[in-house]
Amino acid sequence: VQLVESGGDLVQPGGSLRLSCTGRGFTFSLYDMSWFRQAPGKGRELVAAISRTTRNTNYADSVKGRFTISRDNANNAVYLQMNSLKPEDTAVYYCMTKRIGVTYWGQGTQVTVSS
Q1: What is the pLDDT of residues 4-33, one digit of tens each?
Q2: Can you tell me whether residue 41 is helix, strand or coil?
Q3: Which class for 71: exposed (0-12), middle (13-18), buried (19 or more C-beta within 10 A)?
Q4: Which of 35, 42, 80, 83 has its CA 20 to 30 A from that of 65?
């Protein structure tokens, strides 16, 4: 199982970014997918999650109304559209899935929100 994130960058407050995560080595469409983030000196926190069928999504209160999670099962990809970014959104963002009781993480992509 391999998860590869991309799309992180330096962006000004109020800006937008779209993160992507591509999954390999497993049947992507059968598994729920999540985005987590970890800010410097803090623990890893759930940002958003999406069910395998895309019918169910959930978000951390801190990002509701600003971030949108989506997936494209045909291309084994999950996305995180981030709008109205704030300095407190600065973190390394990770893609995650669980398969047969094992949790898999990507390598992370850095998002920095600063003027």
Answers
A1: 999 999 999 999 999 999 999 999 999 999
A2: coil
A3: buried
A4: 42
Tokens matching residue 85: 């970014």
Q: How far is CA 83 from CA 18, 38, 105, in A?
A: 9, 18, 24
54 falls in which pLDDT band (50, 70, 90)? confident
Nearest to 39 by CA among 112, 107, 105: 112
Q: Residue type for 53, please? A: T
Residues pairing with 11 in the sheet: 113
Strands 109-113 and 10-11: parallel
Sequence letter at residue 81 = Q
76: exposed, middle or buried (C-beta count within 10 Å: 0-12, 13-18, 19+)? middle
